[in-house]
Specification:
disordered C terminus; two-stranded antiparallel sheet; mainly alpha; 977 residues; 9 strands
């Protein structure tokens, strides 16, 4: 019993106050100090309920600069730039009169209510990255014009990727623009999120508020109870039950107060014995018990606010709750008095903590939740500005598929126009997987989806399942053809090529009649000789069929014809047909429309990859650099990045290992799965050469999981060849054979022996080491017979290497030495210096075995120097040990001077011209370099300045003093983003 009950006199219960900030003086001082310096990025990290938001509110109260506060809601599909856009709306009602340039016209889709105050909308851009970059620049211009000194992002772990890109962009501006403060829960950050890259930058101030101790617990409780003292016993009890988490302490005290377990009499706190007090085990339980004690109106408005999320006007809350406004205001007042809600200066109200909101939301029954979402959707439809992503969410949860679909598609359009294809893909996938659309609408939406934005094959397989179900339903003949065509396209994407080919062949007759352009596309996909065991003649037949259709069609567009001609030349080369070279030479050079430029860039990229398959590396580089230059000049940024991945691999093959390392460090953070996969594969190849075989295997297997399936048609980018090399290095020939079995069977079935150039030497060696010499001879003979008539340098080098392996295994060591040297010369001619050095090392081993020590030592010295220069440390150490066994000491060569985080002289040249607003192609002409070399220097400079884009690099270079400001730095034209 309490003392009050023993005395028989009534106890006084003062109201509970919002607790003051307790135990955070040091954290506040750190924040203030960091924000007084430039550039400032402050990260407040901690678990839910630790007091991050409360700390920020106190910080904002103390500082005088204009603050833009962006709160990220826990939506399943985040709204592109939604937190920042809503923050700008709260900061100003008008933008007329602000010093904005024509670039700000790109903000019209984001702020439709200001369309009459913004400049005209600029023209469309060719790809998502360009559109996103332009939008970010426009938004930064608006933020600057508003005089924002402090940009605060709360719950950044829920931010969309474009918002995080904006933060990276602002961070790269260093001395200009607002200081940045963000809060997040580290445990809730996705592994691939840009937030990880942002908070890992150098110079970031990190504040991590910790739990309160017993004294802090007592202070916090006292601040809620009018400043009256709290006993040590009670403080220890609360601290023990809440682990010092401020939100848990507050909720426990409020619940005890509501239960009348806390009373005050004559200035002293009276309570039941501690042993009698019952504190719920979680914040959720405490919140729900407290809400159950409120009146019906308060319960209704809390439910409405939990569904709406964020801060809302009392009128909107009343409409969603389904009660009169006066009744809703009374309920809000009760909930505010109870400390569950807070009120903004503009009278909007919201939950004080997202945990309380989610607790109330999840306690709602399914029927009540659906009804409230429906009311929320209908109410928000009447708002002056329709937030279509939010409307999509409400009607999805309300079970209204028609309006869910309508708003989800609008939200996807907005995301794509904002350069955020990942969010657009997620919105449409959610729509399709949720069954909101049926029949022919399914294939229409799939056709609109940016499939390249899928995070791996899992989501694409979901779409395959949806299309299969649709194809099995009731459709017209035309609808079935279209659905089958989309299904086949997706199956090709996920690597189910055999099954996709069946579906594609089923769709072709209908496409020929209804959509001949799509029919040509389908036939060209069937002509691709990848992913299926069908013989080369099958693919050639489809290639010829497509050629006849393109000629028979009445008036194919120049773009369609150019696309076919480009694809035909590349397909012939992948089929191992030398006629592909003549077809490539005869390609038209004209065509400057946007569509034709894209087809030329794409075609050059495909021809460059085909040239790599043949081992014609100079030709490959010329075509790939032409593709990269076109893509850069016309802002096809995704294509530019994909070509960059191919060039990085070509750099590795030809011995420039520094460039792939720099490229890979950037690409590992890319949104594009193919880029991540290629970066992982390159990193694995470098790990092999350095001797870190365990990490190499992990990276190669991760590459297989991350990107599209690759095989022998991808030549040196076939992961099976890397896995076989690892297995042989570990002395496991059976594993090497298992790694190459599927690829070898595919080559045999198709008769395309050019594809075996990478795996043939590895397989022959594995068979020999596994004691299967007869099979090794037959494999080498089959490869030689299939490639002897091809002018393919890579096949020539591989044939000589397999012959050398057989000679060595057969005991002809003198002959093997000569063959290994021939193989080394053939690899060097490509050039592929790493493979050349390994072949010459094998030759030296044979020379030693037959007593030709001087010849062997001379070779080994050269090989050691070459491997050391490349950075193949494990191989160099092996050669060093061989030389030591012969009594010869080898010393490591010194490499080129390093520049650390400073620009090299050539990087400075490139950055100076970049600051002047020149493109890579223009810089290349001025400096006499290739566009690819310019791109290497740009990427290296971006890495050194932690700049997420070329524009950010230019800004950072000027503001850091690396490059002088050339008068007025010209802004890139808004038409090119």
């Amino acid at each position: 019993m309490s003392a009050a009950e023993d005395a028989g006199t009534p106890a006084r219960r003062p109201g509970l106050a919002v607790p003051r900030l307790v135990g955070r003086e040091r954290d506040l001082s750190s924040l203030d100090q960091a924000l007084d310096e430039r550039p400032a990025l402050v990260v407040v990290a901690g678990e839910a309920g630790i007091g991050k938001t409360r700390l920020l509110h106190e910080l904002l109260r103390r500082r005088r600069e204009t603050a833009l506060v962006a709160v990220c809601p826990p939506f399943r599909e985040p709204y592109t730039l939604g937190p920042v856009v809503d923050g700008v709306r709260r900061l100003t009602e008008r933008v007329a009169g602000l010093p904005l340039t024509g670039l700000a016209g790109a903000l019209r889709p984001v702020f439709p209510e200001w369309a009459d105050q913004l400049p005209p909308a600029p023209g469309p851009l060719p790809d998502a990255a360009s559109a996103r970059h332009r939008l970010l620049r426009a938004l930064v211009e608006l933020i600057d014009a508003l005089g924002v000194g402090l940009l605060v992002v709360e719950d950044a772990h829920w931010a969309d990727e474009t918002t995080l890109e904006l933060l990276l962009f602002l961070r790269a501006r260093r001395e200009r623009g607002p200081r940045l403060v963000l809060t997040h829960r580290p445990e809730d950050v996705r592994p691939e999120s840009l937030l990880r890259r942002l908070v890992a930058q150098s110079g970031v101030t990190r504040v991590e508020p910790g739990p309160l101790d017993t004294a802090g617990t007592a202070d916090l409780v006292s601040s809620m109870l009018g400043g009256e003292p709290v006993s040590v016993e009670f403080a220890e009890f609360l601290h023990g039950h809440t682990d010092g988490l401020p939100l848990a302490i507050e909720e426990s005290v409020r619940l005890l107060y509501d239960r009348a377990d806390l009373v005050c009499e004559n200035g002293a706190w009276l309570r039941r014995d501690v042993e009698e007090l019952d504190v719920p085990p979680s914040i959720r339980d405490a919140v729900l018990e407290r809400t159950s004690r409120l009146g019906p109106a308060a319960g209704a408005v809390l439910a409405a606010l939990a569904v709406l999320e964020g801060e809302r006007s009392p009128v909107l809350v009343a409409e969603v709750a389904g009660i009169p406004v006066q009744e809703a205001e009374n309920g809000l007042a009760e909930a505010l008095a109870g400390g569950l809600l807070h009120e903004e200066r503009d009278a909007r109200v919201g939950f004080r903590h997202v945990l309380a909101a989610r607790s109330v939301y999840h306690a709602l029954g399914a029927i009540q939740r659906s009804r409230l979402h429906f009311r929320a959707g209908e109410a928000l439809e009447g708002e002056p500005v329709r937030r279509v992503a939010e409307l999509s969410r409400h009607f999805r949860e309300a079970g209204d598929p028609h309006r869910w679909a309508a708003y989800a598609e609008q939200a996807a359009d907005h995301a794509i126009s904002s350069g955020d294809p990942r969010t657009a893909f997620g919105l449409l996938l959610d729509l399709l997987a949720g069954g909101a659309v049926r029949g022919a609408e399914v294939s229409r939406l799939v056709q609109r989806m940016p499939l390249y934005a899928a995070s791996g094959n899992g989501p694409l397989r979901e779409l395959v399942a949806v299309l299969r179900e649709t194809a099995a339903g009731e459709l017209t003949s035309e609808e079935r053809t279209e659905t089958t065509w989309q299904l086949a396209r997706l199956m090709f994407h996920v690597g189910d090529v055999e099954a996709a080919s069946v579906e594609m062949e089923r769709a072709v007759p209908g496409l020929v009649q209804e959509r001949p352009g799509a029919a040509v596309h389908a036939m060209m996909m069937l002509a691709r000789p990848v992913g299926t065991a069908r013989p080369a003649a099958h693919h050639r037949a489809w290639l010829e069929h497509a050629g006849r259709l393109i000629e028979a069609r009445p008036g194919p567009s120049p773009e369609e014809r150019l696309s076919f001609l480009m694809d035909r030349a590349a397909t012939l080369l992948v089929l191992g047909d030398p006629a592909g070279w003549a077809a490539a030479r005869d390609l038209p050079v004209e065509g400057e429309t946007p569509g034709e430029v894209l087809q030329r860039a794409r075609g050059f990229a495909n021809l460059g990859e085909a040239a790599m398959l043949w081992g014609r590396y100079d030709d490959a580089r010329r075509r790939l650099e032409a593709a990269a230059a076109l893509a850069e000049e016309h802002q096809h940024l995704r294509l530019r990045d994909l070509v960059g991945a191919t060039l990085a691999h070509l750099d590795w093959l030809t011995g420039d290992w520094a460039a792939p390392m720099e490229w890979g460090s950037l690409a590992l953070d890319a949104d594009e799965p193919v880029l991540r996969a290629d970066a992982l594969l390159l990193a694995g190849l470098l790990d092999v050469a350095r001797g870190d075989h365990r990490r190499a295997q992990e990276r190669v297997r991760a590459a297989i999981e991350a990107g599209r399936p690759r095989g022998p048609a991808d030549g040196s980018r076939d992961p099976s060849a890397v896995l076989a090399r690892l297995a042989l290095a570990a002395g496991h020939p059976a594993e090497a054979l298992a790694a190459t079995d599927a690829a070898w069977r595919l080559v045999e079935a198709k008769g395309l022996w050019l594809w075996a150039a990478e795996i043939a030497p590895l397989r022959v060696r594995a068979l020999l080491e596994d004691g299967r010499a007869g099979e090794a001879v037959r494999a080498a003979e089959a490869f030689a017979a299939g490639t002897r008539d091809l002018d393919a340098p890579v096949a020539t080098a591989a044939r000589r290497l397999t012959a050398a392996l057989l000679a060595r295994a057969g005991g002809d060591l003198a002959g093997a030495a000569g063959l290994f040297e021939e193989a080394g010369a053939a690899w060097a001619a490509l050039p592929r210096p790493y493979d050349a050095l390994l072949a010459r090392e094998a030759a030296a081993g044979c020379h030693l075995a037959v007593g030709e020590r001087d010849r062997a030592v001379g070779l080994l010295r050269e090989v050691f120097g070459g491997l050391t220069a490349l950075g193949a440390t494990e191989d160099a150490d092996r050669v060093r040990r061989t030389l030591a066994d012969e009594g010869v000491r080898a010393g490591a060569r010194s490499g080129r001077p390093g520049y650390g985080d400073q620009f090299s002289p050539r990087e400075l040249d490139v950055v100076r011209l970049l600051v002047e607003g020149r493109t890579s192609a223009q810089i290349a002409r001025v400096l006499g370099l290739s566009p690819r070399t310019v791109e290497k220097h740009v990427h290296s400079a971006m890495r050194k300045r932690q700049a997420p884009s070329r524009t950010a690099l230019a800004v950072a270079a000027v503001e850091s003093g690396d490059v002088p400001l050339p008068g007025n730095v010209p802004q890139p034209p808004t038409s090119t983003g």
